[in-house]
Design a protein that fits this description.
By secondary structure, the chain is mostly helical. It contains five helices and no strands. InterPro entries: DUF1232 (IPR010652).
Length: 134
Amino acid sequence: MKDKLNKRFKIWFSMIKQKVKKVKKEIGALYLAYKRPDVPFYAKLVSVLVVGYALSPIDLIPDFIPVLGYLDDLIIIPLGINFAIKLIPSDIMNECRQQSENIFNEGKPKNWVAGCIIICIWIILFSYILIKII
């Protein structure tokens, strides 16, 4: 029984690991795609938002909040990636995927602009709540 559970856990863990690698590769491809001049403006805008959020050092919902903190990363980022990919022509996206193979080998770059935007959202929400309470 214990061996079966251990084997299932290893299989589940390897599947999660593969999905994380795929998301990482897709983020890299979107990062390259929004820099290309042949990508439509609206696709660039969505790509910038998705990549900015994924690489931001600050989350919209902080990770220390139980369940919700990690749930936003598990839902928002994949949905954003899928939406952005649908907006970019498939031949361009395939080229960007090939180029993104080793884009994060030196670690992921930090996007402090997106982090500042998220901090501003939190400040506005906090201020709004304070004004309503007082």
